[in-house]
Amino acid sequence: MTTEHSPVVEFAGASKSYGSVRALSDLTVSLHPGETVALLGPNGAGKSTTLDLLLGLRPPDPGGTVRLFGGTPRKAVTAGRVGAMLQSGGLMDGVRVRELVGLACDLHPRSHPVDKVLESAGIAGIADRTVGKLSGGQEQRVRFALATAGACDLIVLDEPTTGMDVSARQEFWAVMREQAAQGRTVLFATHYLEEADAIADRVLVLHRGRLLADGTAAEIKNRAGLRRISFALEDGADEAALRALPAVTDFDLSGRTVRMRSSDADATMYALYQLGLYPRDVEVAHLGLEEAFLAITRRAEEPGADQGTSGSTDHGDEPGQSRGTGREAAAV
Amino acid sequence: MKTLIKLEILRSLRNRKFLFFSVIYPSALYLIIAGGADDAKLPGMRVDMALYYMVAMAAFGAMTAVLIGNSEKIAKEREQGWVRQLRLTALPGRGYVTAKIAAVSTVSLPSILLVLVVAAAVKDVRLEVWQWTAIALCTWAGSFVFAALGVAIGYLASGDAVRPITMIIYFGLAMLGGLWMPLTVLPAWVGDIATWLPTHAYAALGRAVEEGDAPHLQDAGILAGYLVLFTAAAALLYRRDSHKV
C-alpha cells in the first residue's frame, strides 16, 4: 500500500465551498517524506480549510480527493500516523495537564510515555495545573503535547506560534526542528513570513483559496522578480534621469541615498553607469519573502489574473502589510 | 477509551455546583408535589401519589441531569474546538458517546437514590428490598437513553439554540410521558402518543415494580430501541460534525 516513495499527503483537484464562498479552489499538491512545508497566506486564504480536508475533519467537494499515506485521512489518523495541533483546538476543561496528555497518549496506538511527552513539550513543570488556568503560551504547549503524544509520521500545525512571545516562539521551533530531524514530515500554516523563511524547506503560497506558488523560500522570492537596489551619489542626483532608468518600479531619494526596486536589476544598473554616474555603496538584493509574498498576491488580484474567485480577502492583520506600496506589483 | 471515561467521570465529580443541584433538585420537587398528599389511590391506578411521584421524580430528576448536562456541555465543547481535537485521535465515535453517558450517569445515580431515601423517610413508602433495588437500577439504566439523546442534541444544535431546543424536548417528553402528572388525568390522545415515548416507558419500568410486577418487556424493548437509535445518531453526528470553529 504505502511505499518509500509514495507521497505523505496528496491533494488532487480538491475544492471546498461553504455555500457560495469558495474557500479552496482545485488544490493539487503532494508532500513527500521528510519535508518541512509552510502553508503561507493571509487570514482567509484557505489555510485552515486545507488542513481540515487534510485531517479528514471535512470532506472535499465532490470531484476532488485528499489522501494521506495512500489511504483516507481518517485511516491515517486512526493508525496514529498524524499528529495535529489545531489553531483553535479547545482543551478539555476541569482536568489537569497530566491527565489530558495522558488521555492523548492512551488514545494513540503508538504512544510515548506521558512523562516523556510532557518533558519534550516543556510542560513537565505545569503537569499538575488545571487546564483552564493556563496562559496562552502554555495552552499552545499543551496542544503541542497532544499532537506529539505518539510516534507519528506527519505533524500538522495550524498557526502554532500564535499567542507566543518571541522567546517561546524560538523554543517552539527548536523543538519542532528536532521532530523534523527525526525524519517526520511537518506541515505548518502560518501568516508569519519570517517563520516560513527560516523554518520551511518548501513554501506553498495560498491566496483566496488558490495555490499561487510552490517552491523554496528563495524560489518564491525570485518569482516575485524584483530586486532592491540602493546606492549613494556624492555629487547629488538628477532625480528625473534616475526615475527614467529602465525597469524601475519604485523610487525613493532621500539626501544622497537612492533606493529603488527594479524588475530587471542588470538593465537598471547598466543604464545607471551609462549616465556617467559613479554610485557608491551599491547594494542589489532580493526582496524579503514578505515583500515577494505581497508582490505575488497583488499580482494575482490584478484584473484578468483572478479567475472569478469570489469574495474579498482581508489582509488587515498581515504583518508588514502597511509597508507595501502597491506600485511594485502594478508594474511587474 | 477507558481513560476518557475515567476523565469524564472525574470532571463531572469535580463540577461541584452541577453535582449539588442535580442531586438535590428531584428530591425537592418530590417533596413539593407529593409532600402534602394523603394515601388515596390515584384515579385509575393501583398506586398513590407518594409512590407514583417517587418513581416519576426519580426518573424526571435523572433525565434532567443527563439530558441537560450533556446537550449544553457538548455544544460548548464543540464551540471551543475540543471535539475537533478529539476527532484527530483514534477514538471511535461510540467511545466518545459512551464516555459522555458514563459521565452524567455518575451524577444521576445519587439523585435517584436520594429520591428513594426521601420517599421512605418522609412519606413512609414501604417496599420489599428487591423492589427498592429494581426501581433504583431500572431508573438508573433508563437514564442512559436520555444521556445519549443529550449527546445527539448537543451535536444537532449549537450556540444559543441548544438551550431552547433542549428545553422543548425535555418538557415535551416529561409532560407527555406522564412524569409530571398521571396520564389518566390527561386527554386520551395524549395517552396514545405517550405509549411510544421513551419517558413513558421509562417511568413504567419503576411503576411496574411498585405494583409488584417485573418491568414490562415492551417498555424495556422501547427503551432499548431508543438507546440504540440515540447512541447511533450521536456517534454518527460526532464523526460527521463539521462545526466551524
UniProtKB/TrEMBL annotation, chain B:
Membrane topology: Multi-pass membrane protein
Record keywords, A-Z: Antibiotic resistance, Membrane, Transmembrane, Transmembrane helix
The keyword Transmembrane helix appears for this protein: yes
UniProt GO MF annotations: ABC-type transporter activity
Subcellular location: Membrane
A GO BP entry: response to antibiotic
Keyword Magnesium appears in the UniProt entry: no
The ABC-2 type transporter transmembrane domain, residue ranges: 50-236
A Pfam family assignment: ABC2_membrane_3
Parts forming coiled coils: none
One cellular-component annotation, GO: ATP-binding cassette (ABC) transporter complex
Top-level taxon of the source organism: Bacteria
Bilayer-spanning residue ranges: 18-37, 49-68, 101-122, 134-156, 168-190, 220-238
Name by which UniProt lists this protein: ABC transporter
Annotated source species: Streptomyces nanshensis
